[in-house]
Amino acid sequence: MPRRVSTIAAWASIVGAVLLIVIALVSYRVVLVQRHLQAVQTELADTKERGVQSERQVADLKKQGETLQSELDKANDQNNDLQTKLDQATAKAESAQSQLGEMQSQLEATQGELESAKQAADQAKAQVAELEQKAASLNSELQKSDGQRIELQEKLDKAGSEIERLKSELDQVQRAEGPPERQ
Asked: CA 127, CA 95: separation in Å to the nearest integer?
C-alpha cells in the first residue's frame, strides 16, 4: 500500500505541475490578448479624435462659406459630401468601439473597421485642405470683384457729374436762345 500512495502522490504532483503550467500559459495568453486589445482601443480613440478634429475644421469652413455663399455654392456641395463621409466614419468608429469588448475572434474584424475609419479621416483631412484652398481662391476673386466694383462706381459717379454739368450747360444755352418757337 505505501507504494500505491507514493505512486498516487507522484501522479498528483505531476498533474498539479501540468495544471500549473497550463494555467500559466493560459494566463500569459490572456495578458497578451488584453495588451493587444488595449493597443487597438488606444488607436481607435486616436482615430476618433482625428475625426472630431476634422469635424471642427468643417464647421469652421461652413462659417466662412456663409459670408461667401454665392461664390461658394460648389464648395458647399463638397462640404456636405465631406460631412456625410465624416458621419459615416464616426459611425464606423463607434461600432468598432462597442465590439472591442468581444474576444480575439472579433478583434480582426474590428481592426478592419479601424483601418477604414483611418482612411475616411485622411480623406476628410485632404478634402478640408482642398476646401480651404478653394475658399481662399474665392475670397481673392471676391476682393478683385470688389475692387472692380469700386472702380466702376467711381466712373459712374464721374459720368453722373458730367451729365449734370452738360444738363446745366444745355439749360444755359436754352435760356440764352430764348423760348423755343411754337409752330
From this structure: 24
- Could you count the other beta carbons within 10 Å of the beta carbon of residue 128? 21
By the 10 Å C-beta count (0-12 exposed, 13-18 middle, 19+ buried), 97 is classed as middle
Q: Which residues contact 127 (CB under 8 A, 6 or more apart)?
A: 78, 81, 82, 85
Give per-residue pLDDT as tens, 74-90.
Answer: 765 776 777 888 888 88
This model's pTM is above 0.85: no
Cα–chain center distance at 85? 8
CB 99 within 8 A of CB 106: yes
Q: In this structure, how many other beta carbons lie within 10 angstroms of the beta carbon of residue 42? A: 10
Q: Which residues contact 57 (CB under 8 A, 6 or more apart)?
A: 128
H-state helical runs in the chain: 2-67, 73-99, 104-177
Q: What is the CA radius of gyration of the chain?
A: 39
| Tens digit of each residue's pLDDT (9 = 90 or more) over 12-26 | 889 989 999 999 999
Grid cell locating 87: 458621419
